[in-house]
Amino acid sequence: MLIDQGSWEADEIFADHNYNNSSVLCCIIYYTTGYVSKKIAKNTSCQICLSALKTNDKFADLPEAELINLKSKGGLTHPNLRLFQFLYKVEECFAKHCNQKNVFDLTVEDALRLKFSFPCFEHKNEIVTSILTNFIVMRMRQFAVQENRFDIKKADKRKKLPN
What we know:
Elements: H1 2-5, H2 10-13, H3 22-41, H4 47-53, H5 66-71, H6 81-97, H7 103-113, H8 124-160
Protein name: Transposable element P transposase
Organism: Macrosiphum euphorbiae (potato aphid)
């Protein structure tokens, strides 16, 4: 119904879904990878880097691309599939450490152990650092918002309980 009306956001579509469901998680990470790719691509003119970040396709026939295909009118970015697969693994690293105080450092350490070859030797360190920083910071913010919502709901339940 929301899609038919044309006034919807990604949060509304996935509001009542289990985020541990791999298909939903893949769609969200694909969408996020496209966002990070587009953000980083704005600051580079290297064609090798650009091809490693995103594709020029307006439509991708992949289950992971369903959200972008539905939401986009050509303005969203389909990421490079190797980058998507890398950030999917980084998400697993984040999930392993998300409740620890040094989540950023632990996630970066695990991510650097993953096999990911960036094709542009000249800009590799700068681009991969930017990819990891943008993705992990975004996930930390989103995780904090979820945790705060949970804490607020928990506090509201305590207030409603009779003493």
